[in-house]
Amino acid sequence: DVNDTLVARIGVDRSTIVGEPIDKFPWLDLDPNHGLTVCEAVNRAGGGELVQTEGELQGPDGLARIEVWFKPIRNAAGEITLIAVEGKDITVKTRQRQHLQVFQRVVRHNVRNDLNKLVGWTTILAEEPDADCRQDHLRRLTRIFDGWERLTNKMQVIDRAIREIPHDESTVNIAEVTETAATAVRDDYSDATIAVSVDATDETVSRWLTRPLTEVIKNAVAAGDREDPYVNVSVRQVDNGWLQIVVTDDGPGMPDIEREVLVTGEETPLQHGSGLGIWLIRMLVSVLGGEIDVDVTDTGTEVVLRVPTSSANRNLGLVAPEQIS
Fold first, then answer.
1. Going by C-beta distance under 8 Å and a sequence separation of 6 or more, which residues neighbour residue 279?
2. pTM of this prediction?
């Protein structure tokens, strides 16, 4: 049998689950890094062992990271008659751990590089007799400090998003979100042309979508440092309760490292502050229950965000940390 929490989490009828072999359960995917398949975990539990592992549970709200136990249940005679499979949602904890790892790598890299620059420029500044040259050196120092401020802001946004999005039901019309994001980038890049078309004007989404969409558009405009960049942003409804946002640019193509971070969530390549915008996009879209795809061609890059609407009555990517069994 299965409990109500699991039925609600995967969004199917109970009758389609009960009686089916657990190794054929399509919504549960154990982490291969833990070296266990479902069958192996069941066999070990059948031998009397309490087996603990991790995996991902797929449902209408997206993927949830879960901690899974396979527990042998014994009768009065001490015989194993049942194996209970229980899971606990650890999505927030896992994302916080990933975020901390990225933060540590980025800070180590930036502290080492920027401190060397600060020491060098302050030494030159102290010995520079020309006032105009001193102003140039000060501007270089200011750029370093401004970079740290931007880095800190992005880290704080990601941290808040991980903690607050699961409990924040504030929504905004998708047309407003798209135009707000495009306007913010136009204000910073006056030479850019950003075309926007929304074919789902009645739909609403989480207010948190504005920030990652702004970052996607900004990256598209800034790609390759080209003159008069052109970016197209289009929104349409693709399934009941899902929107597809496509951001296309005419730049030189997104680097493979950035594409890997966006599509797979593999954060280990990130070592410096310039990659935090990419990590912010990945983390916020994931917490919102969305998905990202990237297509790089000879003519530019197409970033596709697939996100749930508020009308789909979703939990915005997370369920409460209840036990699933």
1. 102, 154, 158, 261, 267, 270
2. 0.70
